[in-house]
Amino acid sequence: MISQDKRHLSSAHPLTDEHADASQALRERLKEITCLYEIRRGMGPELSVENVCRQIFQHLIPAMQFPEIATAMIELDGRRFTSETHDEGPTHELQSTINVNTHPCGQLRVFYPGDKPFLVPEEQRLIDAVATDLGRWFERKQIDEALRERLKEITCLYEIRHGMGVELSVDNVCQQIFEHLIPAMQFPEIATAMIELDGRRFTSKNHGQGLTHELKSKISANSHSCGQLRVFYPEDKPFLVPEEQRLIDAVATDLGRWFERKHLEQTLVSITEEHQRSIGQDLHDNLGQQIAAIGYQAKALQKKISSLGSMDAATVAASIATQAQVAVMQCKQLAQGLLPFELETNGLVAALRAFASRIAITYKITCDFICKNEVLIKDKDLALNIYRIAQEATNNAIRHGSAQHVTISLGSEEEMLRLSIRDDGGGFGGFNTKHGATSGMGIKIMQYRARQLGATLKFVSHPEGGVEVRLEMRMM
Asked: Which part of the chain is the Histidine kinase/HSP90-like ATPase domain (predicted)?
């Protein structure tokens, strides 16, 4: 009987030990699952690498067999992060490689003092799982960061190209580039930029001379180098190459194309102006003089025929003389329109006043000029472009809109110059005020001139009838 009891007790011990081992395994498994759940739940793409590593230490170390003495280290992408109380003394460790895009980029290491054994393979399996999760998170973060950089690049290029489409002055285009390019850099708070274009230099705000760490790109127009775009950081900040270099190259290319287009527009306006001057000079000096000579000869012929008693022939000669005199007056008016002598001698205000008076007499309509305050423009090219815009807008209103009343207004206020040409006609030929579409060369040249000045030009259709051309520009 006693021997049977002993056998029974001896057989019960293995069951108790087996049950204890199973419970311990379940507890370890629960710690592992909880650890992985908390780590994965907290791995948001918005977190920094350092914050994610701290979070891993927070949940991984309590899941170890001896959490009170365990420490950990993560080496990732050339940086090292350690848990609290970690020192270089512990040598007893488990480690797992962190792979990103199938390439090793670091490792996760957990340490015990040398006299404490690891629970292998359970703890190794947990460390491997955390290293795998960290690698996948880092892959996603790199993708997210690449997408954000790409979005910044696309947004930057869109805003710059949109601004260039408005065709501002060189100064304004360069400042607009700085406005959108610098925020797209990796460290916008310390980045500065410089544009050297066609012998001129433009710099962003807070640009200093001590910055030597830079990226740059050449600006080319018509296959010739005409400047460069340079972006600077302090030397201790690295550029995000090649992403930032690609963006700078794209902006430099866009600026070069814009500069080509602007040069073509300036050439077009210059050629047009030269043709007008040439025709005006020919009308005034050649054709007008020849018609005047015909008139004088017809007048002399009239007197001679009258003395011979042929009154019918004398009447014809007188008619020729009168028509020649009218033709001379028309030649002078055309020459004055093409070659504004008043503008060169007495300035823009006097030239516009004389132009309004001449329009009223020529077309027998009402054409008023209003100068709201003193406007003094010393720049001859600026004055000429403003005059030409007023001239073209007025002629369009009369010829295409059949206007009977035109008002030309000029004024300046708070460093803004404003020109308005308002009519009561039926609209411009070749221009849709609602959609801004135009096919007329005259209106296109008006727009080119305005862009050359860095001015805004608007065409406004009023409900009560008529069209108003508005030009606004900041006086330098």
From this structure: 381-475
pLDDT in tens, 330-365: 787 777 667 677 787 888 999 999 999 989 988 899
CA separation for the pair 286, 262 (Å, rounded) = 35
Q: Which of 125, 12, 148, 5 is nearest to 64 (CA)?
A: 125
Say how far apart CA 215 and CA 115 lie, in whole Å: 54
| SS3 label, residue 433 | coil
Residues of the chain with CATH 3.30.565.10: 346-475
Alpha-carbon span 240 to 412, nearest angstrom: 47
3-state helix, strand and coil shares in percent for the chain, rounded to the nearest 5: 55, 20, 25
- The DSSP letter of residue 284 is I
In this structure, how many other beta carbons lie within 10 angstroms of the beta carbon of residue 407? 18
Rounded CA-CA distance 246/160 in Å is 15
Q: Is 197 left (phi over 0), alpha (psi -120 to 50) or beta?
A: beta
Burial class (CB in 10 A: 0-12, 13-18, 19+), 93: middle
Q: Does pTM top 0.85 for this prediction?
A: no
Q: Which residue has the tokens 């992408």?
A: 77
Q: Is the peptide bond before 242 cis (omega within 30 degrees of 0)?
A: yes
Q: Is the dihedral of CA 291, 295, 298, 300 positive or negative?
A: negative
CATH number of the 20-145 domain: 3.30.450.40
Query: Which residues lie closer than 8 Å to 253 by C-beta, 6 or more apart?
Result: 220
The Cα–Cα gap between 367 and 260 comes to 39
**How do residues 173-186 score in pLDDT, each as one tens digit?**
999 999 999 999 88
Closest CA to 34 of 4, 51, 17, 58: 58
> How far does Cα 173 stand from its chain's mean position?
8
Which amino acid is present at 37? Y
Q: Say which residue, 62 or 24, is predicted with more confidence.
A: 62
Q: Would you call 235 helix, strand, or coil by DSSP?
A: coil
Is 394 within 8 Å of 359 (Cβ atoms)? yes
Domain 346-475 has CATH 3.30.565.10: yes
